[in-house]
Amino acid sequence: xxxxxxxxxxxxxxxxxxxxxxxxxxxxxxxxxxxxxxxxxxxxxxxxxxxxxxxxxxxxxxxxxxxxxxxxxxxxxxxxxxxxxxxxxxxxxxxxxxxxxxxxxxxxxxxxxxxxxxxxxxxxxxxxxxxxxxxxxxxxxxxxxxxxxxxxxxxxxxxxxxxxxxxxxxxxxxxxxxxxxxxxxxxxxxxxxxxxxxxxxxxxxxxxxxxxxxxxxxxxxxxxxxxxxxxxxxxxxxxxxxxxxxxxxxxxxxxxxxxxxxxxxxxxxxxxxxxxxxxxxxxxxxxxxxxxxxxxxxxxxxxxxxxxxxxxxxxxxxxxxxxxxxxxxxxxxxxxxxxxxxxxxxxxxxxxxxxxxxxxxxxxxxxxxxxxxxxxxxxxxxxxxxxxxxxxxxxxxxxxxxxxxxxxxxxxx
Amino acid sequence: xxxxxxxxxxxxxxxxxxxxxxxxxxxxxxxxxxxxxxxxxxxxxxxxxxxxxxxxxxxxxxxxxxxx
Lengths: 413, 68
Known about the structure:
The structure holds two protein chains of two kinds. By secondary structure, chain A is α/β, with parallel strands linked by helices. In chain A, 38% of the residues lie in helices and 11% in strands. Chain B is globular. Strand 1 (2-3) of chain A pairs antiparallel with strand 3 of chain B, so a sheet runs across the interface.
């Protein structure tokens, strides 16, 4: 028998971070239409050098963090990733690399494994190159499969992550088969959540309830069939849940996200909330930020909760849901998450679902490409990002670039 | 705590005892034997039942692998 040995006592309910999400860079050669980078990421820069990140890891570990996600953007574009993995290993952190697989070599993966990397999560957008590359905005599908095979060849645990949306939701069986053929240890079937770029592109991405139900049933069958071989996770879109999920396990409770520009955040989108000032790890020790900053304390506990949360039995289970979703849909970050069927703003969600149902009707559908184009044009800051320039060899094919240029704005018009 | 991608599983004392013996060196029978010693006077059968239930759940979730 083999297992990953655990460490630490972790049963208290007091705010204590278990997980540090280190967003090492905004840069990424992909331009996925539901990218989790901020809308204005092209105007932001990476601010933390190797020594600063290692200090953040130490400060996080001292606070109780045991698990580290190295993500971005694309973490592999940092040439100090080896030093960061080595530093994390020295702190005995469980380290997970969350990557698109681009740009990667087998040699680099082998080095990272030797330095102590624990798990690799590779995103694969679909089951065939044209569809996958269209969503990613880059010819990358075949390479991703190759990288996933290297992960397994090197003896690292592999998580395959496929983000689901209207375009690929009917292919869950094929997505499962693909992960099986890659001998993935885990498959995350994560439906798009509608924040950031995904909210901008919601009209083209949100599925219908019928489509989601079919996909969920397929995932359940696969989960049962593969039990003990591959863990199959299916995360539904909040928009089709009856109650909100416990976003980040509660605000400032279990997670710290540090953005590429050094902001310490309770979640990766928290910087979009108005009225909160987030500290930079360059300016203030993490311990102080976690325990004493106004921003981390803003939505802790229950005192901030409005009705119906305040008197709801579920308040300790879902913590009122997602603050970012509340703000971006209702304009009030302290509102009950409108995905909750008890929220007075729940009509906003019902309207979005209705729109998705209408779009699925024959003759009524918005062609997806046109949908993206229209939605993202409105949101464009009017300037490109440096990504394309840094990855000249990784430019999308012309017609793909044209179709999706708006989503990540990196292809010159 | 048992850590794996995205999540962690908080183990209680006995679960942690089992996991700590899952080093790749012990058979299930040996694990049961060790724990029965530690938790005497619990009968061996009861310990075995609990260990098997726990290990099956862990193997199902891919958190522990059986080599034999």
